[in-house]
Write a structure and sequence with these properties.
The complex is a heterodimer of chains A (about 300) and B (about 400).
Chain A lengths: L1 H6 L1 H7 L2 H40 L11 H8 L1 H34 L2 H12 L6 H12 L4 H9 L12 H25 L3 H9 L4 H29 L3 H6 L7 H11 L3 H36 L1
Helix pairs in contact in A: 3-14, 4-5, 5-6, 5-9, 5-11, 7-9, 9-11, 10-11, 11-14, 13-14
Chain B lengths: L5 H7 L7 H10 L1 H10 L6 E10 L2 E11 L4 E5 L6 H9 L6 E6 L2 E2 L10 E4 L11 H11 L4 H14 L15 H13 L5 E5 L7 H18 L2 E6 L2 H7 L2 E6 L2 E6 L1 H6 L4 H6 L4 E8 L2 E4 L2 E3 L9 E7 L5 E3 L8 E13 L3 E8 L4 E7 L2 H5 L7 E7 L4 E4 L2
Parallel strand pairs in B: 3-8, 3-9, 6-7, 7-8
Antiparallel strand pairs in B: 1-2, 1-4, 4-5, 9-10, 11-12, 11-14, 12-13, 14-20, 15-19, 16-17, 16-19, 17-18
Helix pairs in contact in B: 5-6, 5-7, 6-7
Classes of the chains: A mainly alpha (about 300), B alpha+beta (about 400).
The structure holds adenosine-5'-triphosphate and magnesium ion.
Chain lengths: ~300, ~400
């Protein structure tokens, strides 16, 4: 046989066991598909079907006839546009606040000795184990007109009138930032921990001051973690309900609150579904944008680690 | 003295690669780029290290360590794991603060200087290339910190790439390079800014054997061409011997001996050095009445007789040989032994023998036909011969 393939290398190489190998490859593909099928079915049943149904619902108006009126409403009623803008304003502000507070926090955590870092990390994660509702009410107690902060400041004579900290935009931002912070800190901390200390040493060795080393090496290398944290926080903010509903005092109407109003107060499932579809579409578009903006810069780091 | 001529650069390069030659030749005709090539060669400065102490917690890692490195010298720190080589290098580079001591570079004290002002190039064990920059920007990094103009940066990076034979790879991402290429980038990055001193911490340990041997020669050639003062760390004794001008053998935070490789091998000063570099047989001897004795035999030796007391005679396996005569003749010392085993190794053979006091010694010799003809079998009594000039004594501990 080896003689034959030596004489006819091409013919031998092409046909020798080719069919059997091909069949084996097919069997493997089918086998993997079979293993995947429960997961795929689940995804189909709990994600694809409900979203499809939502989309289907959004195409019918109150009388039950097929129309695009649920979508047309977004452009006709200024209150929708206002809600839309508010939602984004809140999401941006909270994300910004999380970055400003979370980056130094994650940096500190990543520089601490191991034991101190794990204790501090538990403190960061601790609020996770408390219900969002409880935490929001706690903030209300602290921030409201006669709350802790205002009464202390007045007692100390720093201010004469209570500061408007709750039941407004500021209250929503404070409450939501607190809840969102771990979502930014954890991925950021993880990516900072993977930065090779020798890289930073090399930076200094090559003549970069500590500040320049941070700016040119540490910060760019922490960007992938920052990007994923920002995306998580931003997307979670877009659909957030409890905190804005409680801390906003009815003055800050976010998209999710609008959906709740439309479906439970006015029982208009078509309009509510349309709101949901728009939120989903906008979120996906934003994720795409993030990927496009940060992906190109960050992938180099991602793939090398 | 450290500035080599361009002609020298080209000729010493011949071992490296053939394609580098035509690229370098135009540089000789063009006076400006010729100037460039010369300017990569850093001015070498001597290093004076004295009285360095370093403790981690309560553990003393470096103990009153002093060491002088001449300008342009290639000095290797060699020692077992945990002997403090990396710690010493980190103190030199400024990443670890010593508890006491002085480091002078060209007479200037730098022990308290922050690392980014020291102007010392370092090649890290894992290369520490910046993963978010391509090869060009990695090498350009130190120039950028020194505010070198864009045009000059491009030119100097090009030269450095040329020097390490990576021409044309500037746009590659770091993770698209092989281990050897990364190593070269790290080297180019460490020398492109003309540092006064280059430190290397086991730069070749991540490479496979053949590439490692190739890079050893290249590093050595590069050092010959550029002449920068180099402190090199390794725990591979062969690497140290082939590359270094001098080797400092470290043990438990102290320097045991610092000498040229051949001196270190031929005349180790301590038992540790003798055992660490090459194979050694240790034979206990005693110094009394102005001469040295092995049991009842007087040892003939050319070096000075040490103070009275117990010593160890260090004998390399290849310095031992089988002699026919049981009585010493001329300047040869003879020690009786019994053969345990003879192992044939192709070009040579190893003979394991037991001395009368039960001590094991190894003899190695080439398989010449006259030797092979008289090769003893296991259990046979033999006489081991040692020339008087090969007798080296170290203190017994
Ligand atoms: N940050 C540190 N904290 C405590 N002990 C340390 C620290 N760094 C090094 N040591 C100790 O100092 C000693 C010397 O370490 P060093 O890294 O200098 O050894 P080395 O000679 O480079 O060894 P190797 O050949 O394994 O790299 C070791 O015993 C090590 O455990
Ligand atoms: Mg080390």
């Amino acid at each position: 046989m080896s003689m034959q393939s030596a004489i006819l290398p091409h013919a031998g190489a092409r046909t020798l066991n080719a069919d059997a190998l091909h069949a084996d490859a097919r069997r493997e593909t089918f086998g993997l598909l079979a293993l995947l099928s429960p997961g795929l079915l689940l995804v189909f049943a709990v994600i694809i079907v409900p979203i499809g149904w939502l989309f289907w619902l959004s195409l019918f108006d109150e009388t039950g006839s097929l129309s695009a009126s649920n979508y047309a409403r977004f452009f006709q009623q200024p209150s929708y546009i206002k809600t839309f803008l508010t939602t984004f304003k809140v999401a941006f502000a909270v994300t910004g606040a999380c970055v400003v507070l979370g980056y130094p926090l994650a940096y500190m955590l990543s520089q601490l000795p191991r034991r101190a870092a794990s204790i501090c990390l538990i403190l960061v994660i601790l609020p996770f184990w408390t219900s969002v509702l409880v935490r929001t009410y706690a903030w209300l107690v602290i921030l409201q007109r006669k709350g802790l902060i205002n009464s202390w400041l007045i007692d100390l004579g720093v201010i004469s009138q209570p500061l408007p900290l709750a039941n407004n935009f500021a209250g929503v931002i404070i409450g939501m930032t607190h809840i969102m912070l771990p979502f930014l800190v954890l991925p950021l901390y993880a990516s900072m921990k993977t930065i090779d200390i020798d890289c930073l040493r090399a930076g200094m060795n090559l003549g970069a001051s500590p500040a320049a080393t941070f700016r040119q090496i540490f910060f760019p290398l922490s960007l992938p973690g920052l990007a994923s944290g920002v995306v998580i926080v931003f997307v979670l903010c877009l659909g957030f309900f409890v905190t804005p509903a409680l801390m906003g005092g009815g003055k800050v109407i976010m998209w999710a609150m609008r959906i709740e109003q439309t479906t439970s107060l006015y029982s208009n499932w078509g309009a509510g579904a349309a709101l949901g579809v728009v939120l989903l579409a906008v979120t996906l578009a934003l994720l795409g944008l993030f990927q496009w903006l940060l992906g190109a810069r960050a992938t180099g780091v991602w793939s090398s680690r | 003295m450290q500035r080599f001529s361009v002609r020298n650069c080209v000729t010493t390069n011949c071992r490296g690669s053939v394609q580098a030659l035509p690229q370098l030749r135009p540089a000789m005709n063009d006076p400006e780029s010729r100037e460039m090539l010369l300017s990569i060669a850093p001015t070498a400065l001597p290093i004076g290290i004295s009285g360095i102490e370093k403790r981690f917690g309560g553990v003393s890692v470096l103990r009153d360590l002093s060491l002088d490195v001449a300008a342009g010298e290639f000095l290797t720190l060699l020692g077992p794991s945990g002997s403090g080589k990396t710690t010493l290098l980190m103190i030199l580079a400024g990443f670890v603060r010593a508890n006491a001591g002085s480091i002078k570079v060209g007479g200037e004290e730098i022990i308290a200087m922050p690392p980014h002002r020291r102007n010392i190039g370092m090649v890290f064990q894992n290369y520490a290339l910046f993963p978010h920059m391509n090869v060009f920007h990695n090498i350009a990094f130190p120039l950028k910190q020194r505010r070198v103009s864009t045009a000059e940066t491009a030119e100097r990076v090009e030269k450095a790439l040329d020097l390490v034979q990576l021409k044309g790879l500037g746009e590659r991402r770091v993770d698209q390079l092989s281990g050897g290429q990364r190593q070269r980038v790290a080297l180019a990055r460490a020398i492109v800014f003309e540092p006064r001193i280059v430190l290397m911490d086991e730069p070749l340990s991540a490479l496979d054997k053949s590439l490692r041997e190739h890079m050893q020669i290249e590093l050595r050639n590069l050092h010959r061409r550029l002449g920068m003062t180099t402190v090199y760390v390794t725990h591979d004794q062969r690497e140290a011997i082939t590359m270094s001008d001098r080797i400092a053998v470290m043990n438990a935070g102290c320097i045991e001996q610092i000498d040229r490789p051949e001196v270190l091998y031929a005349a180790p000063k301590t038992r540790f050095v003798a055992g660490f570099i090459g194979d050694s047989n240790f034979i206990p001897v005693e110094s009394r009445n102005g001469s040295v004795w092995y049991e009842d035999r007087k040892i003939r030796m050319t070096s000075a007789v040490p103070a009275a007391g117990c010593h160890l005679m260090v004998v390399r396996p290849e310095k031992l040989r089988l002699v026919a005569d049981a009585q010493p003749a001329g300047s040869v010392n003879v020690i009786p032994a019994t053969v345990g085993d003879v192992i044939y190794q192709g070009d040579s053979f190893a003979c394991y023998a037991t001395l009368r006091d039960g001590r094991q010694v190894t003899l190695r010799d080439y398989c010449r036909s006259d030797v092979l003809a008289r090769l003893p079998g296991p259990g046979e009594p033999v006489n081991l011969g040692i020339d008087a000039e090969d007798v080296v004594l170290v203190a017994a501990d």
